[in-house]
Amino acid sequence: MPLNEIFSVLAEGALVTIQLVAMALPLATAMAFISGLLRLSEHRALRWLAAIYVEFFRGTSALIQLYWIYFVLPFFGISIDAITAGVVALGLNIGAYGSEVVRGGLLSVDRGQTEAAIALNFSPRQRLWRIIMPQALVGMMPPFGNLAIELVKATSLVSLITIADLTYRAKSLADMTLQVEEIFGLVLVFYFVMAQVLTLAIRALEKHLGKGMDRGGLA
Amino acid sequence: MSDYAVEFDNVTKQFGDNVLFEQFNFNIRKNEVVSIIGPSGSGKSTLLRILMTLEGIDAGMVRVQGESLWHMQKGGAWLPADERHLRKCRGHMGMVFQHFNLFPHMTVLRNITEAPIHVLGQSKEEARANGLELLRTVGLADKADAYPSQLSGGQKQRVGIARALAMRPSILLLDEITSALDPELVDEVLEVIRKLAAEDAYTMILVTHEMYFAREISDRVCFFDAGAIVEEGPPEQIFNQPKHERTRAFLNSFLNI
Ligand SMILES: Nc1ncnc2c1ncn2[C@@H]1O[C@H](COP(=O)(O)OP(=O)(O)O)[C@@H](O)[C@H]1O
Ligand SMILES: [Mg+2]
Predict the structure, then answer these.
(1) Mean pLDDT computed over A5-32
(2) Do B114 and A120 touch (CB under 8 A)?
(3) Which amino acid residue places its CA nearest to atom 25 of ligand 1?
(4) Which of B131, B139, B174 shows the shortest CA–CA distance to B45?
(5) pLDDT above 70 as % of chain B
(6) Among A110, A118, A213, beta carbon nearest to B53
(7) Does residue B222 have its Cβ closer than 6 Å to ligand 1?
(8) Bridge partners of B80?
(9) Which GO terms describe its molecular function (chain B) (predicted)?
(10) What pLDDT is attached to residue A218?
(11) Fewer CB atoms < 10 Å away: N or C end of chain A?
């Protein structure tokens, strides 16, 4: 099979992978912030709930989580299509790791910032969203960048529940044509480019959020 | 209405088993300028932090402008203050911190206008005009659009003062506000405080190691040791004729540096 045909088949798979990332990333981000904030809640029950979520999804394998959602939940009357199952599994899994990033980021902001905010009579909500979170976000960006790359790589798991993503197409194409060098060489490039684009985007975001902040110094 | 801006009535404050204040009494008159001096660990910061609601108390009563700070009255009973009550009381006070605690993600002007806009409900234009005026009084009109990381320590602290003043407090709490500064930057900050004290519009409580400055601007100087006021009085008396041996030893340790 000529290289340009291989390329276009793989590109279609890459598009599916990009769609998965585009859907799982917002879910993971939402889960990371919700559970990260709940872990710092003053209500013990909420802290527990978030901790259980985090420990469960970090402590078990992403592949088994995916199988559970796709193959086992139907026995309990919950049937979802493969794409949704993939997005949910990946989003919840990466979100659990992100939760720790959010929590750590918030705790790393100097206590003096909260005290200044109290002295200026900001409400607890304003303290969080106007003073603490904008500073914490900057430090969260590099670990978020790592997790985004983890997410891109983890999408290849969905090929095991019949989604025709980049990895799935590469494998079927290789089985068919036996042109393994070209195919898997191209696949590497595709994944690498996707990861690079995400990395650059997150670096730009970090720079934007950190405007004026000379990190490490006292303000 | 009370003549006092600040009252501590039999206040007890402990950290774990460590009792810092025990049956502590201390009053400050309206528009009085009080300096607190004393060795490290004597409770000077904690006193200010209790007032700013950064630390709770274990017993007794604290009043700010006649209003109880850590307790509120509801249906004839005293209850622990809730966030709403605390926010009402905090409005009387402004605090300036040793390490500035400016918001690093905001420009100088926004550091000053953020709370007036979002806490006091001032319009953006009003807050901006006030903020620029305050920056002029602290000599930093040209730094409005700079970020804190671009300022010297003395400039940061002057922003810290302007930020506190923007909330129009009647009581100013100043905790060693020149201690983190290089010696040559101390005067520019003290000059601002000197002007504020001369306005006679603020009750000021300043914790300081600048003895000459305390002597110059204070109505009263209090020497703290181990959570108690060992000696207090007009600055001339404390600095010229200290009665207590501990006060004398403390002041001597400053002369010998
Ligand atoms: N958060 C805290 N936890 C435990 N002990 C504290 C805390 N804050 C202050 N202390 C103790 O209270 C005493 C007074 O501290 P502080 O008010 O900071 O003194 P000063 O400002 O006079 O140096 C010190 O012995 C200090 O160790
Ligand atoms: Mg102190």
Answers:
(1) 96
(2) yes
(3) B41
(4) B174
(5) 99
(6) A118
(7) no
(8) B71
(9) ABC-type amino acid transporter activity; ATP binding; ATP hydrolysis activity
(10) 47
(11) N
Helices (H), A120-165: 124-126, 133-154
Query: Which strand (E) or helix (H) includes residue B22?
Result: strand B18-29
Q: Is the CB of B113 under 6 A from ligand 1?
A: no
Closest among B147, B148, B168, B166 to B156, alpha carbons compared? B148
Mutate to test the interface with B, among A121, A138, A209 (most CBs of B within 10 A): A121
Q: pLDDT band at residue B228, thresholds of 50, 70 and 90?
A: very high
pTM for the model? 0.92
Q: Which residues have C-beta within 8 Å of that of residue A154, sequence separation ≥ 6? A: A62, A90, A93, A94
Q: Whose C-alpha lies nearest to ligand 1, atom 13? A: B41
Q: Does A3-214 carry CATH code 3.30.70.940?
A: no
Torsions phi, psi for B202 (to 5 deg) = -125, 145
Residues of B in Cβ contact (< 8 Å) with A138: 105
Asked whether B119 and A119 are in contact (CB, 8 A), the reply is no
Contact B126, B120 (CB under 8 A): no
E-assigned strand segments in B58-155? 59-64, 67-68, 71-74, 77-80, 93-96
Separation of alpha carbons A62 and A158, rounded Å: 10
pLDDT above 60 for B257: no
How do the domains of chain A map onto residue ranges?
3-214
Residues near A195 by beta carbon (within 8 Å), at least 6 away in sequence: A149, A152, A153
What span, in angstroms and rounded, lies between the C-alpha atoms of B234 and B249? 19
Give the residue from B125, B181, B135 showing the smallest Cα distance to B159: B135
Angstrom distance (rounded) from CA A93 to CA A97: 7
Q: Which amino acid is at B113?
A: T
| Residues in CB range of A93: below 8 A, 6 or more apart | A28, A57, A62, A65, A154
Count of helices and strands (H, E) across chain B = 9, 12
A42 φ, ψ (degrees, to nearest 5):
-80, -10
